[in-house]
Amino acid sequence: MNPGSVAVVVAEDIDVPSWDLYELSIPCTVFGKPQPDLADPWYDLRLCSTGQRQQDSSTAGAGLAMRTRYGLDDLVGADTVIVPSVPDPCVEEGRPLPSALITALRHAYDAGARMVSLCTGAFALAEAGLLDGRRATAHWMHTAQLAERYPKVQVDDSVLYVDDGDVLTSAGLTAGLDLCLHLVRRDLGAHVANQLARRMVVPAHRPGGQAQFIDLSVPTTDAGSLGPVLDWARRHLDQPLTVEDLAQRAAMSPRTLHRRLQAATGTTPLQWLLNQRLVRAQHLLESTDLPIEKVGELSGLGTANNLRHHFLKQIGVSPSNYRRAFPRTMPESSPSPLDSRAQEGEDGEGRQGRQRTDRGAPDTPVTPRATGPDD
């Protein structure tokens, strides 16, 4: 299974502001370091410079120079093109983006590339006309400017990222990491994405519809931390858990649990449970040959019909099509994160299946859609 090439735009090859390095480093970390034990081959990463001339030293600020082997011509032919950010003056002052960059983005899209922006990179995709008529997002501090400057774009400032098939956009900072892991999940399956996230010591999956605004005023070291009860819930997803069950386990009222979980994760308790059960179901579909009915039972989604309903609504395909898209992506030697009840249901037989070779938007998306946190 070849995930293809990823071309990352370096918007300024001279005087890259230090605060823009975070978004630039995200795709470099996710796609640039080979992970042969998870997927071989891994992504082919290219850093493509816009080739702008050197700025005057009086405006250089705290930036640094970067030189790359690739230029804008290398965007065309890449399977995925990522714009991690654009220069601040282009956002704050309306300075034009390099025309060569906009032309290259259009050519890459016309050639079939999957187009991705992180944070203010959405301004480049919008300038190229790639977001016209589409739902998109950016960092909440810049979404008003994005909407005003590009009225044809349906700007949503309330989500972490938006997956619109062949064009994807994310909010700023860590939301860019969420989107990049989402791309890995889309290309290589939930197991590979979860293992990569574990190595990066970050949450395995935050749905795109999760709110950008999360109140972290509740200390994580509070004696009433939700960590233990959420871990307990993950181990008992096959049981008919309710908000009252979680609240009782956490020794708090259902209203307090709802408030604290909303503040900590941006989702309601019921939506959190549904997301966890979908992740469990994805893992089972990828790593076992269990019947769909058994997958529904072990994931806590109930009957096969109920499993299909939630898969079609939240992921966009049926469980059977998802399994065909990601056949046995978990190595046989990998430890299963499932609890003992799930492990006892596995038949342990390996299965070789067809591999995906497309790197554009799949005919039937196999990733969670970006929805509102209470959908």
From TrEMBL:
MF terms from GO for this chain are:
DNA-binding transcription factor activity; sequence-specific DNA binding
The protein's name in its UniProt record: Putative AraC family transcriptional regulator
SMART domains, from UniProt? Answer: HTH_ARAC
Task: Say if the entry is tagged with keyword Transcription regulation.
Answer: yes
The source organism is: Streptomyces lydicamycinicus
Superkingdom: Bacteria
Q: Which residues form the HTH araC/xylS-type domain?
A: 227-325
Q: Where is this region: Disordered?
A: 322-375
- UniProt cross-references to PANTHER family, sorted A to Z: ARAC-FAMILY TRANSCRIPTIONAL REGULATOR (PTHR43130), HTH-TYPE TRANSCRIPTIONAL REGULATOR RV1931C (PTHR43130:SF3)
Gene3D superfamilies reported in the protein's UniProt record: 3.40.50.880, Homeodomain-like (1.10.10.60)
Q: Which PROSITE patterns match?
A: HTH_ARAC_FAMILY_1, HTH_ARAC_FAMILY_2
Q: Where is the composition biased (Basic and acidic residues)?
A: 341-361
Keyword set, alphabetical order: DNA-binding, Transcription, Transcription regulation
